[in-house]
Specification:
- The protein has about 325 residues and is an alpha/beta fold.
- It has two domains: about 110 residues, NAD(P)-binding Rossmann-like Domain (Rossmann fold), CATH 3.40.50.720; about 170 residues, Dihydrodipicolinate Reductase, domain 2.
- It has nine helices and 14 strands.
- Strands 7-8-9-6-10-11-12-14-13 form a nine-stranded mixed sheet. A five-stranded parallel sheet has the order 2-1-3-4-5, with helices on both faces.
- The longest helix is centred in the middle third of the chain and has 16 residues.
- It is globular.
- The mean pLDDT is about 95.
- This is Gfo/Idh/MocA family oxidoreductase.
- It comes from Dokdonia sinensis.
- One of its GO terms (molecular function) is nucleotide binding.
- InterPro entries: Gfo/Idh/MocA-like_OxRdtase_N, Gfo/Idh/MocA_Oxidoreductases, GFO_IDH_MocA-like_dom, NAD(P)-bd_dom_sf.
- Pfam families: GFO_IDH_MocA (PF01408), GFO_IDH_MocA_C3 (PF22725).
Length: about 325
């Protein structure tokens, strides 16, 4: 069992504390929060051990789970890595690219494992079809949320869109060629609505929309590739897969057949895999424990987190 501690006991930090305490892969040693009031309240309410300093918590751990605001990610990661501790860092990996690159370099220097909390990679709907997504050429995503003051200290790109950026980068095996974007601030000091067009060197184009002032919640992505259309509903945990194959010479009466202008006939069929229920945050934490124990690369590596942040910053820079 890996001894784990949590830095930051806010809304998400409390969720991580609960799940680490439940996991069969970790022993929860406790947490640290910069607020004495939060430390006292969380300790009294849930019974978790509150440490008086970051350093004391880090010393007691094998794995440090960093769930502080992103402006403090680098400081916590630096202390943990220099102490030889593995780090799980909530998304985004850091506040800026310079800090992310420093985290990468420190991790390599001290030979530690690191994973970034891009939890949608562990969404069961995405996991059910991710291996079916093969060289997509057009991707469309919509991530819309009702207004919540929590998270509005950063642009909607870092708050919401970065989830889709990371998922797209994981399936498009090509470098980003060009980014064009627009963003609008409605109620926050930073953009609340954003749209981005990402062009890749292999010709793939991704169109991403994110909003945190919508009337309803939506988290959908659509992937278009040769002979297939794949839709992922991250919110409802549903998938839709529509494929085309060469039509048989004698199709049955219920077969859906399309014929193009050249006379080529294709049969449409549905291949919708089962989507099992899961707790994505627990799964990502357990996957990190597995990577540490088996000495493998984490599913969402520090490099992945850095690349997602790099593209997100390209989007923001084009506003």
């Amino acid at each position: 069992m890996l001894k784990a501690g949590v830095l930051g006991a806010g809304h998400l930090g409390k969720i991580h504390l609960k799940l680490l305490n439940q996991s069969e892969n970790y022993t929860l040693v406790g947490f640290y929060d910069a607020s004495p009031e939060v430390r006292a309240t969380v300790s009294e309410q849930f019974g978790y051990t509150a440490f008086d300093s970051e350093e004391a918590l880090i010393e007691a751990c094998d794995v440090v789970d960093i769930v502080t605001p992103s402006t403090y990610h680098y400081a916590g990661a630096e202390k943990a890595i220099k102490a030889g501790k593995h780090v799980f860092i909530e998304k985004p990996i850091a506040n800026d690219l310079e800090e992310a690159e420093k985290i990468l370099a420190l991790a390599q220097e001290h030979n530690i494992k690191g994973q970034v909390g891009h939890v949608e990679r562990f969404n069961p709907a995405f996991m059910a079809v991710s291996e079916m997504i093969d060289t997509p050429m057009f991707i469309e995503t919509h991530r819309l949320a009702e207004f919540n003051p929590r998270g509005t200290d950063v642009p909607v790109v870092l708050d919401l869109m970065i989830h889709d950026i990371d998922a797209i980068l994981s399936v498009v095996k090509s470098k980003v060629k060009k980014v064009t974007a627009s963003g609008v601030s409605v109620i926050s000091e930073t953009p609340d609505i954003a749209n981005a067009r990402i062009e890749f060197e292999n010709g793939c184009v991704a169109n991403l929309t994110a909003s945190r002032i919508s009337m309803k919640n939506m988290r959908k992505s659509r992937f278009f590739q040769k002979d297939a259309y794949i839709s992922v509903d991250f919110l409802e945990k549903k998938v839709e897969v529509v494929k085309m194959k060469d039509a048989p010479e004698n199709p049955d009466d219920f077969a859906m057949i399309l014929q193009n202008a050249e006379g080529v006939k294709k049969q449409i069929y549905f291949d919708n895999p089962e989507v099992p229920g899961n707790n994505a945050i627990l799964d990502e934490l357990n996957a990190f424990a597995k990577a540490i124990k088996e000495n493998t690369t984490p599913i969402v590596s520090l490099q992945d987190g850095t690349e997602a942040l790099r593209v997100a910053k390209m989007v923001i820079a084009d506003f």
